[in-house]
């Protein structure tokens, strides 16, 4: 596995904060975020079951730019 670091939450001290990577081999996005609270989980379950091995995490809206960059890297449209 070759994870490419994209960015951490720009409004944190750089430790223990939401982060986004791209797996260069599978082109999957990898996120570190805050555990979803109970209310969020209940709302997510309205759309269907969350299987074992999957999680719901929250990322701040200020990470949208980093997530877009990760998407561009994953689909190959980013200039390297």
In short:
The chain is α+β, with helices and mostly antiparallel strands and 80 residues long. It has two helices and five strands, in the order E-E-E-E-H-E-H.
Describe the structure.
The protein starts with a strand and ends in a 5-residue tail after the last helix. It has helices spanning 38-45, 64-75; strands at residues 3-8, 19-23, 29-32, 34-35, 57-58. With 80 residues, it is α+β, with helices and mostly antiparallel strands. The mean pLDDT is 91. The protein has one domain. The strands form 2 sheets. A 3-stranded antiparallel β-sheet has the order 1-2-3, with helices on one face. Strands 4-5 form a two-stranded antiparallel sheet. The chain is globular and about 40 Å long.
Pattern of helices and strands: EEEEHEH
Q: How many DSSP helices?
A: 2
Q: Largest sheet, if any? A: 3 strands, antiparallel
Shape: globular
Distance between the termini: 19 Å
Oligomer: single chain
Strand order in the largest sheet: 1-2-3
Question: What is the mean pLDDT?
Answer: 91
Number of strands: 5
- Which blocks of ≥5 consecutive residues have pLDDT under 50? none
The radius of gyration computed from the alpha-carbon positions, rounded to a whole number of angstroms, is 14 Å
């Amino acid at each position: 596995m070759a994870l490419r670091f994209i960015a951490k939450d720009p409004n944190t001290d750089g430790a223990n904060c939401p982060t986004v990577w791209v797996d260069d081999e599978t082109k999957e996005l990898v996120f570190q975020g805050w555990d979803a609270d109970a209310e969020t989980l209940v709302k997510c379950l309205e759309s269907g079951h969350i299987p074992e091995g999957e999680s719901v995490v929250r990322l701040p809206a200020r990470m949208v730019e980093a997530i877009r960059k990760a998407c561009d890297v994953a689909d190959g449209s980013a200039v390297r």
